[in-house]
Amino acid sequence: SPAWAPPAAAEQIWNEFSKEESTDEATIQKSFIRHATKTLARSSYNMDQFAAYQATAHSVRDHLIDRWNATQHCHSVKDPKRVYYMSLEFLIGRTLDNALLNLNLKDHYKRAIGGIGFTIEDLVDEEVDAALGNGGLGRLAACFMDSLATLDYPAWGYGIRYEYGIFQQKLVDGYQTEYPDYWLTFGNPWEIQRLDVSYDVRFRGYVEKYVDVSGQTRYRWEGGEKVVAVANDYPIPGFQTKNCINIRLWSSKPKKEFDFASFNEGNYDKSVEEQKAAENITSVLYPNDNHMVGKVLRLKQQYFFVSATLQDIIRRFKKTSRPWSEFPQQVSIQLNDTHPTLSIVELQRILIDEEGLTWDEAWDIVTHTYSYTNHTVLPEALEKWAVPLISDLLPRHMMIIFELNLYFLQRVEKLFPGDRDRLRRMSVIEEGHPQYVRMAHLAAIGSHHVNGVAELHSELVKTTIFADFVEFFGKEKFVNVTNGVTPRRWLHQANPGLSTLISEKLGGTAWLKDLSQLDKIKAFADDVGFQNRFMDIKYKNKIRLAEYVKDVTGVTLSPDALFDVQCKRLHEYKRQHMNIFGVIHRYEKLKSMSKAELEKVVPRVVIFAGKAAPGYYTAKLIIKLITSVANVVNADPQTSEYLKLIFIPNYNVSVAEILIPASDLSQHISTAGTEASGTSNMKFVLNGGLILGTVDGANIEIGEEVGKDNIFFFGALTAEVEDIRHHQMYHNVAMDAKLQGVIKSIQSGRYGDSVIFEPLLGTLRSDYYLLSKDFTPYLEAMERVDAAFKNKSAWAKKCITAAASMGKFSSDRSIQDYAKRIWKITPVPTTEEFA
Ligand code: B1H
């Protein structure tokens, strides 16, 4: 576009009014009122709390946009290497409170909004979550964006603007029921629609072979149908920096708004059909965590997202007229799991078909650009797509996949001549009827680095799914980057009491940008005064949670009880059923106790929360069992002082922000070797809770940091799991006696007609997830927890020491790891001259 500058007469006014708005109380109030009256068309007699939230959000958005503009200006002038984080999920949650804190405007807004007659805390609660993700993988992407912005890295997030986020969960008769999450009903003040940033995306069609002017045989993808991708920008402000980066979310629009020819022929349905089909692409998030479902629409989403994103990246790259060979020095693309893997094939296609590079030149660029994060080794979660599906939707891509697989296998054959089973194992194509494309193989072959998300998981990646690939490429390509969480949202925002206490002791808030400084809090672990303040904050957080629980379930909780929480997606590998079986065991035991014995019991509140994939029958049955047991336990006057059981419906980021700071104990009890990392485990300990967990995922590294006295480990180790499964299968092993007791209790009908639970109890016959093996060790670990909780001061010391040991688990550390070892990018602070 031609360089434009304001005419001399307008320059002064331009400069003045494009400056970042000042943050004094009166200016904020004026901005609030301007947005209320002009943006929302409200008047003072027509304001409610939601409108006040909207007006506040719009005025905060102005600050975000100022910083966003400055950051973009700075980056286009300095033109550094950028990282592009491609993810089909961003589980952001709410924005208002987080933005206020990151911009350091919370106190200003508190006063300004208070002066107008609203309370900022009330307004914050009006916001609906942006829930464009399933669980840990999507939330990790959101934490990474916060860290990238905070550390001044030149980064973009790319994703899909789903109109429906993860479904809303309600309980009906104790069963999960799903409702659509149409989060955009009342608009979204945090996004900026960019109708000027749009790209065509092609589907289907055919491949044409031709000879170009230089006599080269080439291919081009033609015909088919096109849809349009439109950009929606979501500004992400860093903490205490001018830097504000962007998540660009694509929405699909029809290429032709309306088919007038069909309409005039009286074919009304057909005239809107195409429009609807196009809009459908970005309509809904697939609600499966750790499970692959091979639906065409999902594949369409993936390619739509990949195509639009690459066109945008390439357009930016081309602005500075560098040769293609410099692409990998300017661009690093991170694939968040295999979901965006088609991007590898798409870049190869663009380079050879459209840009005229040779295959080898193109492949060299591709493989120096991409890196891939693996998030799971569970077989049912590994993506594979039927070849006929890809051939139909993306015919040229299917050709390229076969071709790159051929070249790859030829290289394997050269290194391991005649090893046909190795070729079969390593092929991108799984043979059969139909054939399948193994996306993880494609991602590994097309990337310069592959990483797992915790030490153990990264070892499993190297020894299981990519063992052959390690032998072929060498082990340097396979690295670990342990996950982290942002301390801004997960401590400063969710637990202001604790954040303030830490800042007081450390003399400022610098620790929020360098979490390793938390270490210095260990010095206060024995200080009784500090212990009391620390536990008093926990107590107040428990009261806040109890109020929330009262509100949504009607059950009254005592904040003096031990709050024991397991909140995460429902999955057999995460073993929520082991937890509820444990609760049943506890309840039966309480029922058999004398009054004198009961008086020695540590009162306990067990809290579950989490969504089950709508098609995951067993997971839904676990929810039904939890709610059925809760109905009985909570109504039993004999035990009610000692045990309460809660299922909090519709677990999401906002609920997590209440739940996590209020826990004394949280459970992370996956069968060893199944949970790649887990990230809520980090959040719980950071907030002064302890972990009861298996030797799995990031639990292990948390244990190394906090010390063995400050974490409750139990259960079979990863190395033992295979042998135990084998043994159970072939040697008629009797089920654990206490677990048998629990099953009897369920089958007695005490929690309602037990027939409905038979399919769940049936899974214990083959017991793939080792509940029987781990049950007694689990109960013993629980006894250690109860004993430890009785000594208040010793418990406080554990919690303080553990929380102060969490420096490693900041997502800032994860991002610095990626930046230095994988992306090779450096920070580019947005300096004053751009503001
Ligand atoms: C994780 C997923 C996942 N691993 C497929 N894999 C999906 C797989 O829609 N799909 O098809 C969606 C999600 N999610 C989680 O990633 C791991 O289970 C956690 O252990 C880990 O902490 C998290 C972040 O790395």
Automatic annotation (TrEMBL):
Q: Does the keyword Lyase apply?
A: no
Classification via InterPro entries: Glycg_phsphrylas, Glyco_trans_35, Pyridoxal_P_attach_site
Q: Which residues carry this modification: N6-(pyridoxal phosphate)lysine?
A: 683
Q: What PROSITE patterns does the record tag this protein with?
A: PHOSPHORYLASE (PS00102)
Cofactor(s) recorded in Swiss-Prot or TrEMBL: pyridoxal 5'-phosphate
Q: Which reaction does it catalyse?
A: [(1->4)-alpha-D-glucosyl](n) + phosphate = [(1->4)-alpha-D-glucosyl](n-1) + alpha-D-glucose 1-phosphate
Q: Tell me the superkingdom of the source.
A: Eukaryota
Which Gene Ontology BP terms does the record give?
A: glycogen catabolic process
Q: What is its EC number?
A: 2.4.1.1
- What cellular-component terms does GO give this entry? cytoplasm
| GO terms of molecular function | glycogen phosphorylase activity; pyridoxal phosphate binding
Q: Name one Pfam family in it.
A: Phosphorylase
Q: Which UniProt keywords apply?
A: Allosteric enzyme, Carbohydrate metabolism, Glycosyltransferase, Pyridoxal phosphate, Transferase
As for family, the record states:
Belongs to the glycogen phosphorylase family.
PANTHER family attached to this UniProt entry: GLYCOGEN PHOSPHORYLASE, GLYCOGEN PHOSPHORYLASE, LIVER FORM
Q: What does this protein do?
A: Allosteric enzyme that catalyzes the rate-limiting step in glycogen catabolism, the phosphorolytic cleavage of glycogen to produce glucose-1-phosphate, and plays a central role in maintaining cellular and organismal glucose homeostasis.
Which named protein is this?
A: Alpha-1,4 glucan phosphorylase
Species source reads Spizellomyces punctatus (strain DAOM BR117)
